[in-house]
Write a structure and sequence with these properties.
Elements: H1 2-6, E1 8-14, H2 26-45, E2 48-56, H3 61-65, E3 69-78, E4 81-92, E5 95-104, H4 117-135, E6 144-148, H5 149-162, E7 173-177, H6 189-194, H7 213-220, E8 223-226, H8 229-234, H9 238-241, H10 245-250, E9 255-257, H11 258-261
Helix pairs in contact: 4-5, 5-7
C-alpha cells in the first residue's frame, strides 16, 4: 500500500480543445478542468498524478497570447510526402501543456473545427500521429493516455497497433472519453490511407466504421469513459450508439463512468 501511495502515475491528456486556450463547447470545459482536478486530487489522497495536456495549435496567435515556448520540430512520412510540425509548451496552473503545430503542409484554417470535413480529418490525423512522435522526443513517458472523442482517438489505435511502451517497458494504458458519439471522424478514410494508418478488423465493429477514428479508438482502448452510469447504459442502444451498440453490449466491462475516474 505504501508503494502505491508514493508511485507517480504519468498521464498524457489529449484533446481538441481546453479552456482557457480553446473552448467551443463542453469538451473545452471538461479538458480545461479535469486535469486540474486530477492533479489536485493526487495531492490529497495519492498516488501522485503527473498529468500533462496536449492540444493542436489551431491558431498561431496562441503562441504570443499565452507565451508559448518552441521546443522542437518533428517530421514523418505520409503517402503524398514528408510532413513537418513544431512542438510548443507552456505551464498553466502548474500543468505542462504541449501544442502541436502543423507546418507542412500548412493548415490554412485557424478554427478549432473547420466546416470542411477533409480539413478537420487531416488536422486531427496529423495531430494524433505527431503526438505519438512527440512522446519519443520527451524525457517523460506516460503510463496512461487519456484521449477525447474522435480527434485524438487515433492515438489510442496507434499506441495499440505499434505496441508503444513507456520507459519501464510496459504498454501504455489507454482511456477514451466519449462526449459526442455522432461525430466519428467522417471523411477521414482517404486521409488515414495517406498516413498509412491501418483500419481495425473486428466482428463487433461494423465494416463501415472500421476506417473511422472514433470506432478505431473505441475498439483499441483499454477503458471507455461515459459521463454517467445512465449514459453508459444508453450507449448500448442504437439511438445513442449510432450503430456501435453491439460493441458496447459485448464489451460492457470496458466502460467506466466519469466519477469512477476522478
Amino acid at each position: 500500500m505504501v508503494k502505491l501511495k508514493t508511485k507517480t502515475i504519468r498521464v498524457i491528456f489529449a484533446s481538441s480543445e481546453a479552456e482557457p486556450f480553446y473552448k467551443i463547447g463542453g469538451l473545452g470545459d471538461y479538458s480545461g478542468s479535469l486535469p486540474n482536478a486530477l492533479a489536485a486530487l493526487s495531492l490529497k489522497n495519492g498516488p501522485k498524478i503527473d498529468i500533462r495536456v496536449v492540444l493542436p495549435l489551431h491558431d498561431p496567435s496562441t503562441i504570443d497570447k499565452f507565451s508559448l515556448s518552441e521546443e522542437f520540430s518533428l517530421s514523418f512520412d505520409s503517402g503524398p510526402g514528408t510532413v513537418t510540425g513544431k512542438i510548443y509548451s507552456t505551464h498553466f496552473n502548474d500543468i505542462t501543456y504541449y501544442f502541436i503545430r502543423q507546418i507542412s503542409p500548412k493548415n490554412l484554417s485557424t478554427d478549432v473545427y473547420d466546416s470542411n470535413q477533409n480539413t478537420n480529418a487531416y488536422k486531427f490525423a496529423f495531430f494524433s500521429i505527431a503526438c505519438i512522435k512527440m512522446l519519443s522526443h520527451l524525457d517523460w513517458q506516460p503510463d496512461i493516455l487519456h484521449a477525447n472523442d474522435w480527434h485524438s482517438a487515433l492515438m489510442i489505435h496507434q499506441i495499440n497497433h505499434l505496441k508503444i511502451t513507456n520507459d519501464s517497458g510496459k504498454t501504455i494504458r489507454t482511456v477514451l472519453a466519449i462526449h459526442n458519439m455522432p461525430f466519428m471522424g467522417y471523411g477521414s478514410e482517404k486521409i488515414l490511407q495517406d498516413f498509412m494508418i491501418n483500419p481495425i478488423s473486428t466482428d463487433s465493429i461494423p465494416e463501415w466504421a472500421q476506417h473511422l477514428p472514433l470506432p478505431m479508438g473505441i475498439a483499441s482502448t483499454d477503458k471507455i469513459i461515459a459521463v454517467s452510469p445512465t449514459y453508459a447504459e444508453e450507449l448500448k442502444t442504437n439511438y445513442f450508439a449510432y450503430g456501435l451498440e453491439n460493441y458496447f453490449i459485448e464489451n460492457a466491462k470496458k466502460a467506466i463512468w466519469h466519477h469512477q475516474w476522478h
